[in-house]
Design goal:
Strand order of the largest sheet: 1-9-8-5-4-2-3
Structural class: alpha/beta
Shape: globular
CATH class of the largest domain: Alpha Beta
CATH topology of the largest domain: Aspartate Aminotransferase, domain 2
Amino acid sequence: MFDRPAILGGPKAFAEGVPLCRPAVAPWEEAAPELEKMYRSGWLTKGPYLQAFEEKMADLLQVKHVIGLGSCTGGLILGLQALGINKPGGEVIVPSFSFMATFHAIWWNNLKPVFVDCEPDTFTVDIAEIEKAVNKNTVAIAAVGVFGNAPDFEGLEALSEKYSLPLFFDSAHGLGTIYKGRPLGGHGSFEVFSLSATKLLTGGEGGLLTTNDDRVAAHVRAGRDYGNPGSYDCPSIGLNARMAEANAIIASKSADYLESYAEHRNKVAETYKNGLADLPGLSFQKIREGCRSSYKDFAILAGPEFGIERDVLAKALNAEGVPSRAYFNPPGHKLSCYAYAAEGVKLPVTERISASVICPPIFSRMDLQTVSGICEVFHKLYAYRDELK
């Protein structure tokens, strides 16, 4: 039945389809003059626009150092390298409910990811599970801000201090998040942010590493250019992880709109919550107290009472012109490439969330009537749930 134009017959709810996300950037007229000037200058990388963007973001995020990179993943790899913890048998405790890049950066540093469970409501890492996993081989703790929801920064930092373990944060979804009145960026040894096209602030591609640690900053600045500090005598082995000038210009201009993007996404999230609140079996990510989420994604859990299994629901929504994503499915400990590190690992909360989470469309200029229309599709499918089994 999923091959029919619409699940219930007749025209699709959204004939043209709703985009899952749509990048939001500053108006062309604002970016064009500097893009043209950069293009005509021939100075396409390692130039003044990146430096200006880094300074702008350091002020915006209220942090000492901001380093622009070719990707958030490059920031994770280099930041972890800067901690100087690479040792035989070293382990990094990491929540399994995250994007694969979080774990890949650990592997690239010759360290082993030790996967732990998350909290059932916030989807962020469960600190009690981290503490259970600490052992003589543990060299660091990683935490993740999920969909823009802040982890328990205070609890994590206290645990880091208790065991004298470095702590770093994958805040890829965190630009636009406010926690206790401040933007993210100054926690742990370092944080990383993504500027890819699905994020609130995008340069097309790219990432940022933020830190208040001078040593980490110096290492990453050299590391993004192969480890070359300027003398061509590399004290460490780095990457080609530079951010191009064009990416810096696009992101810098769009940064002026970041707050408005976050505010609107919160309106989108509230519209979803209000429109779906009366449907049994659907629940939403709990945003941590004191946090204003960026809502990079809006996560819904489709429980048994809803009567439509998540994967069937995704196909049904798609047939009505509403795409969705199941983030993060599979989670880290279920990825084939980490079978060596996760044999016998069972994380019941992560597995339940991964099996039931569905993220409908959300973007920074999304029309609220479209959101209400998507909520109507959920109601329509629920009314005919027995036909979808």
